Amino acid sequence: MASKDRILRQKEETRKNILDAAYTIAKEEGWQSLSMRKIADKIEYTAPIIYEYFSNKDAILQELTLKGFISLTKDLEKAKSLSEDPAEQLEKMWMAYWDFAFSDKELYQVMYGVQMNCCSGRCSATENPYNLFTGVIAEVMKSQNPSKEVIKQKYFTFFSVIHGLVSVNMIGNGLSTITNDQILKDAIGGIIKSIQ
């Protein structure tokens, strides 16, 4: 039994090492530079061993995307817990989203396809941020008794503005941090006022 446990631990460790190597390569060289060969070289394994764990590069990107959405969801839940007021929750959650995008730029890029092709697979973890945001939007708009479609539209209004600003900043817009922060706060505040 102990040898089975050891083998499982080794497999999980190798899988983690593959993902860590892919992430490190992306941080150092960008996602476009990622290849199965580079990952194998980084962890000093042969490429066929990498294929025992992941069928291709897209499978690795999918796994990293999942990790990103799990991490983002935790950040959003933490931000939401900082207030009881739904409008304040919404503001804090979008600020946490912004912070996540720049504190873990490479994960954000793979999650949302900034400067790269997005992973096409979906799983429940990718829906968690959407569900958190729409739940709070519904609370802010409770007195209007909005339909699910209206709530969805309001979410995508927020997402379009915030994601657009994140993308512009990742590509490089030359604006100062103070200016970007003010634009972000103005956008979030304006949208919240429009839905109250």
From TrEMBL:
Pfam families: TetR_C_33, TetR_N. It comes from the Bacteria. Residues 35-54 bind DNA. Keywords: DNA-binding, Transcription, Transcription regulation. Residues 12-72 form the HTH tetR-type domain. PANTHER family: ACREF/ENVCD OPERON REPRESSOR-RELATED, ACREF_ENVCD OPERON REPRESSOR-RELATED. This is AcrR family transcriptional regulator. It comes from Flavobacterium arsenatis. The lineage of its organism: Bacteria, Pseudomonadati, Bacteroidota, Flavobacteriia, Flavobacteriales.
